[in-house]
Structure formats: C-alpha cells, structure tokens
Amino acid sequence: MVGVWAEAQRQQQRRQEAQARYQRDLDRQQRARQREIASSYREQRRAYREQREAEAWRRTEELDAQVASLQGLLAAGCRAPAFRADVLTRAESVPPCAPGQSAAYRQQYQQWAAGQLAGIRGHNAAVAEMTAGLRDGDPKAAVEYFSAALYASTGWPEGLPRQVAAAYDSGARQLVLNWELPRYDVVPEAKSARYMINADQVKDAPRPAAQRRTLYRDVLAQCLLLVLRDLFAADEFGALESVALNGFVDDHDPTTGRRGPMVLGTVMVSRSTFATLHLEQVNAVNCLVDGLRGQLSTRPDQYAPVRPVRLPESVGNGVVTHGGDEEPDLYEMDPIAFEALVAELFRAMGMQAVTTQRSNDGGVDVDALDPAPIRGGKIVVQVKRYRNTVPPTAVRDLYGTVQDAGANKGVLVTTSRFGPGAHTFANGKPLELVAGSELVDLLHRHGLRGRLGGGGTGGGSGTGGEGPVPAQRTAPDSAPEAGTGTGAGTANSTGTGNGGSDDDHNVLGMYWSGSVALDVCALVCHGNRVLDDDHFVFYNNPRTPDGTVRALTPLAPDKAAIQVAFDALPARADRLVVIAAVDPVANPSADLTGFTGAGIRLLDAEGTPLEQLDVSDGRDDETALVLGSFRRRANGDWDFVTGGRGYRGGLEELVQDYGIEVD
User: Fold this and answer.
1) Distances (CA, A) of 535 to 420, 483, 529, 601, 637
2) Where are the residues of the annotated region Disordered (predicted)?
3) SS3 for 628?
C-alpha cells in the first residue's frame, strides 16, 4: 500500500510540474505576443506621427514657397520678355483640305478658308491701324495697346488681379492708369505648420503682424514697379514720356464697410528716370518711395489710402498743356501767366487753387486748398521768378504770411534755388520750398509743360534776365580763377582753381569766444566717408583739387573762413562736413572748454550775410568737434545739420572716422 501511495504522489507531482511548465510556456507566449502587439502599435504610432509631421513640413514648404514667390515677384517679372505689337498679329494660314474629299466638301472648305483668312487679315489690319494711331499719339490706340501689354505680360504669378482703367494724355505723352493690386490675404496668415501630438492635429503658427504687413507693403511696391516696367518695355514706338500710376485694392473699406476701390500706392515717373533703375537689385519700397518719390500706404493692412497723383478721369478735363511743341521758358514767361501755371499745377495735383489779385494780395500769389483729411487745409503760395539764389528773407516773409493768413502751410515756388540758410529756417516749420528743377519735374509729372532757359523739354539753364543762372553741378574743366569781391568775399584765397565764378560761391565765417587757438577744416564726403585725401581741406591742404572748397583769410568778426562753391562740388559728394580742432602747436595742453558762443555766418559772394548757423559748444577733455554738415537734397539744394560729436584724440581721431588714414 505504501508503494502504491508513493507512486500516486509522484505522478501527481509530475502532472503539477507539467501543468506549471505549460502555464509558464503559455505566459511566456502571451507576453511575447503582447510585446509583439505593443511593438507593432508603437511602429504604427511612429509611422502615423511621421506622416503627420510630413504633412506639417509640406505645409510649411508651401508657405515658404508662396512667400518666396511674393518676395521675388519683381525680379521674376523683369525676366519676362517685353510685349511687342507683333504678338497681336495672326499668321495667315488655315488647315489644308483633307485629300480625297468630294467636290462639294472642297467647295465648303474653300468658303470656310476664305472666311478664316478674311478674319485674320481684318484682325491684322486693326492691329496695324492701332500701331499707326499709337505713333500719331491717338489716345484710344495708346490705351488699347498698353492695356493689351499689361494683360499679355507673362511675368505675373497666377492668382494676382489684372484690372486696369487708363487714359492717355497725348499732349504730355503720359499714360494715366489705375491698376488693381492684390488684397491683404495674398500674404499667408500662417508662417509655418507644426504637428501637435496631444491634439493629433497639424496647427498653423501665425505670421507676426508686423512681418505680414511689411511683406504686403513690399508686394504692393513690387506690383507697381512691375507695371511700370511692362509699360516702358512695351513702348517700342516712343509714345510714353511718363506714366502716372495708381494702385488700388477692391475690397471693403474698414472705415465705412462699403466695398470699393482704395488707392494704396501712387507714383508718377518719366521714362528717363525709370531707365536708370536696375529693378532686379532694388528694394522695392525704397525705390518707389525714395527713388521715384511715389507714395505708398504706411498701413496697407488697414487699407489706409493715399492721394492719387493723377486720375484717368482728369485727362482732358482741366488738364492743359502750354506752348504747343515748344515748352515755355519759365524765366521769360509773363508773371501773371507763371502764377496761373503754378495754380494749374496745384489743381492737377488734386487741390483747389486760384490766383489772387495783383494788389492787396497780402503777399499771396496763389490760394490753394488741400481737401485731404488731417494733413490738408489752406495753403498760401508765393511765386518767385528768380535766377539767383532765393535769400532767406523771402522764406521768413512767407512764414509771416502763413501766420497772418491762418494757413496750414506755406509753399514758396521759384525758378532758381534755395541756399542752406533758407532750408535751415524752413526746417521744422509748415513751409515747403520748391526749387526750379523740382518745379519743372512736377510740371512734367502732372502733364504740364515748362523749362528753365535753353531749349528742349528739360530744366536747362537760361541766360540773361535777372542774374546768373545756377552753376553747373560739377566744376567745368576750365573756369575763371576765384577773384575778389567785397566783405567776407574779399579775403585772399590761399589757392586758385576752377571752383566757379565769383558769384557762384558762399563763404562760411566761423566765430567763437575764448582765446583757444583752433584749426577749422572741411571734409568733402559721400555719406560719412571723405571722397579722398585731397578733399580734406586743412592747414596743409588749403584747397580741393577743383578749387570748390578752399580756406580763406578771415575778416572780423570771424576767426576762420572757408569758401565753398556748393553747386560745383563733385556730383558724388552729398555732404560737406565742417570741423574744428585744438591747434596742438599753439595750445598743446588745451581742450575745447574755451570754445563757447560759437557759430557759422553764411555769406554770399559779395559778403552779404544770408544766415547765422548755430553750432555746439566745446566740452572738457575734448580736443576736436564736428561743427555741422551741409547735406545735398534730392533737388540739388543744401541743408545745414548741426553736429556736436566731440573727440578726445584730436583731429587725427576725428578724420579717421571719415576714412582718412593717419600715419
């Protein structure tokens, strides 16, 4: 019995062990299966995440490509071929008749082919008639041709609007047009895309508002420049002297909620000016606003409008030309007619303007009203038909007239130019000075005519009349040596040269209190870099090679004097910097503490004071000081900007900042 029981126990134990092994194997297999399922799930999740991340990456690539297309709009458009009238013509060819057809079919074919050829020839005749009309200055032909050029241009991306309304001023050879611009949503609101794991969605990251607005403004400028490029490139007949372009957006006005056109950019440019541009390399906004003097909305995202330079509907309605084929000489024009021309210019610019009575006009030649909100209002205009530089007293008189009349602004229009003193007085005041060259440009830009002496259509120099005409912009190869005059101009020059005639220069007389001995010097610069070492006028180099800047022996009350022929300075010079430094020989241990009560007297060639320019006083431990700089404006006039930067290292440290190497 004991043996049987023991065997039964062993068998039961073996069964339990087998059952345990089976359970362990089953558990191991189940765990392996679970690991396999988990691994498969992780792989699926990883693949799914990669797929979603790829979607976000593709979305970001699409956004980047869209932005790159907008940023390169102008450059890509300039690579497109220019439009030519030949593309409008059709070839005189029709498909041949299929061989083996019946006589009836051939007769039908011949009738059809004759009709096709007649249509083609009629179309080509219309194109020839249009081009002939364009050569003759026909407004309808000009509008039709240049509209076709814009619609046919291949340089525009898909999706941008192309709507144009145009008119042609045959007298001024000017095309005036409104061109539709893309709306704000052309710039993608999203900057990039990212996959959000927890939310299981691809989410757009918003583009910063300032970045989106800047890009949109750049797109608008590129569109306007590309329109100008397409028009001038298509003009194979010489029909365009200038173009007045307004870019508008057709959308809901955020102020009123009504849908309608809002002008966001406007420019008027001549062919000669536009031909100097290299559009593939420009900054579009800077080119349009600064280079071409156009206007571009500063808040285009809010559709803040600008005033158009000229509208198509104004062509033929109140816009006049003067002098037929020969432009009138503004120097020789009757004074009343000249005032009327200036009034007409203001009206062409979108203002209301009338000339005043010849007597009791209170110093006002033209009364103008700018209807623009906020910045508009009453404008008093004085007209000076001069040849010599307008004295600062005329600008002071205008300022008094503005105050007496309660006007918002005063404008002084002249056929000559303004000196630094006039611009210095006008700075910061509600005054605008329009020199002769700028006046001629404005007349041409608004379909009016006028020139400054000579012949042709430009603002050339004239002769005779009220005095010498403005000097050349660059010094001639040979000219009379600087002579002597009266007053400050009688000081003997320390050199001779071709810096212009006696009447073409100014004298800068420097004065200060205190006994410190100073060297007063001048730098002829482009920006903050001197043109070269020869254009640094100081005690060892008393004059520039062309004689346009030279040191003079001062006359009381001045302690130093420099003669400058501003209009004869090199064309690339846009700045004349005047500096003062302690004389290390006379005052080796001095600084500029004693340099107080200082100023610059601006005198004409006869020594007549034109303006007194304030400069900064000296400071402790400083031995050199930038007194100020005369800066050339776009119209050729010069403004004085007060300096004030001091240097402890004397003249050597100062001139090194302007690019002069000191051994």
Assistant:
1) 21, 21, 11, 22, 20
2) 1-38, 450-501
3) strand
- Cα atoms in the 13 Å half-sphere on the side-chain side of 377: 11
d(C-alpha 317, C-alpha 200), whole Å? 64
Residues of the chain with CATH 3.40.1350.10: 335-445
How far is residue 126's CA from residue 149's CA, in Å, rounded to a whole number? 16
In whole angstroms, what is the distance from residue 180 CA to residue 250 CA?
A: 7
Nearest residue to 522 via CA among 402, 423, 424, 651: 651
Q: Which tokens go with 333? A: 């024009």
The structure's pTM equals: 0.47
460 pLDDT higher than 70: no
Phi, psi of 271 (to 5 degrees): -60, -45
Rounded Cα distance, 255 and 257, in Å: 6
Q: Is the separation of the CB atoms in 178 and 312 below 8 Å?
A: yes
Neighbouring C-beta atoms of residue 115, cutoff 10 Å: 11
Q: 487-656 has which fold?
A: Lipoxygenase-1 (2.60.60)
Query: What percent of the chain clears pLDDT 70, i.e. is strictly above it?
Result: 88
SS3 assignment, position 118: helix
Domain over 335-445 is classified CATH 3.40.50.10490: no
List the one residue out of 174, 137, 143, 139 whose CA is nearest residue 449: 174
Contact 387, 465 (CB under 8 A): yes
Strand ranges inside 137-226, DSSP E: 164-169, 174-180, 190-196, 201-206
